[in-house]
Amino acid sequence: MRVIILGPREPIPPVKGGAIEKLTWELARFLSKNNIETYVVSTTTSNKHIGRFIEIDGVIVHYVTPPIPGGSLFYFTKMPIFSSRAYTFVNKLCQRECVVHSVYFYNVIKGDYRNTPLVITEFEHYPWIREYMYHYPFISTYARLRWEIDALLRIQLAKLLMPRAKLLTSVSELQKNVLCRHIPNICDRVIKVPNFVNTEFYKPTYSKDLREKLGDGAEVVAGFVGRLTPHKGLHVLLYSLSKMDKRLLKKLKLIVIGPRKPGFHFQYTKDLYAKYLYSIVSRSELSSVVRFIGQVDESEMPRYLSAIDILIHPSFVEAFGLVLIEAMAVGTPVVAFDMPPVNEIVTSDVGFLVKPYIHELTKTLEHIVENKYEIYRRKETARDYVERNYSLKRIGLIFKNIYENLME
């Protein structure tokens, strides 16, 4: 059997550590190791690689265009070029049995896939869950209108492109229901296949020295991992810290890992949300509690997630929440809001689900600091839970079975 994966907008193998890039590459390597002839159609940062085939870890990567920037209307500008070249490659290669798996529905904007088994995975929450509602205080009216129009255009495009697939996979039950609601006559072709984590890479890692360095004497070292954008909820976490009993707050350190340089110099930025975060830290005197360490290389993430006692994930909008299972895979419990799809993943045995309010998060954090045994009890079950439900091996075999069934 031959599987061709139409990759994401950034290059494969990943160079920036994005979630879809990581998932695409891990799945491709898994399929190759399980004796499936696997190709990935990818972008590349090197112009000299465009048009070339390079074998990496048993996967044949075909580079067709430079990376495709996000933002509005990319699917009408750069994406059709990628899609057209991808289809030309598929058409040549699929003279005998093969399955095409696209990680974006935009990837099939060009081409006729009626005679080819096509799987489309919808990894993203946008445009289905409109994250821009959380950004309204920090963006102009013009930016808001552009965002709203972009969401409408993407949904219309999805209605046109998604029905071309023999099968659609969603990463959560919430997302499956949203697709069924928006795309006519598609529900019988949508199945839930959750995201996964490579538990051979994300595993408990010795990090005592790093914990001591990050924690600076704190009894509980908490972590936040994510983009500094309103729907990720870091401002809610900061406000929750500011409401904590001062005696308990002194025992806690929050480590923020995100795509910015180390330190906290947001007062100099033009980013209104970053300025807002700075104002909360400054007004609430949290500078000794919160430490911003910037971007961490993907190779170091298991060590950092092992170094913290608990991951706090106050996000309001997710399609899945990959960092949740990455943290649990190294044995680190999570705190997250009790709302879908996160409450499909996190249980009381491996984490803490909290009503999405500042005072509720404050109460939970105070409880954790006062009852640290609650953390250690969950550490014992977190990794086993991920291995049973979200390991690359388990989900990879599900995809393998999907491809085989489509070939019958």
Commentary on this structure:
The protein contains 14 helices and 14 strands. Strand 12, helix 10 and strand 13 form a beta-alpha-beta unit. By secondary structure, it is of the alpha/beta class. The strands form two sheets. It has an eight-stranded mixed sheet. Strands 11-10-9-12-13-14 form a six-stranded parallel sheet, sandwiched between helices. The chain has two domains: 212 residues, Rossmann fold (3-Layer(aba) Sandwich), CATH 3.40.50; 182 residues, Glycogen Phosphorylase B (Rossmann fold). The mean pLDDT is 94. It is 39% helix and 17% strand. The N and C termini lie close together (11 Å).
Task: Let me know the number of strands.
Answer: 14
| Main sheet strand line-up | 3-4-2-1-5-6-7-8
Biggest sheet layout? 8 strands, mixed
How many domains in all?
A: 2
Please tell me the overall pLDDT: 94
Number of helices: 14
CATH superfamily of the largest domain: Glycogen Phosphorylase B
- Give the N-terminus to C-terminus distance in angstroms: 11 Å
CATH top level assignment of the largest domain: Alpha Beta
Estimate the strand proportion. Answer: 15-25%
What would you call the structural class?
alpha/beta
CATH architecture descriptor of the largest domain: 3-Layer(aba) Sandwich
Rg for CA atoms: 22 Å
What would the CATH topology of the largest domain be? Rossmann fold
Segments where pLDDT lies below 50 for 5+ residues?
none
- Share in helix: 25-40%
The H-and-E topology, N to C, reads as EHEEEHEEHEHEHEHHEHEHEHEHEHHH
Globular, elongated, flat, extended or rod-shaped: what is the shape?
A: globular
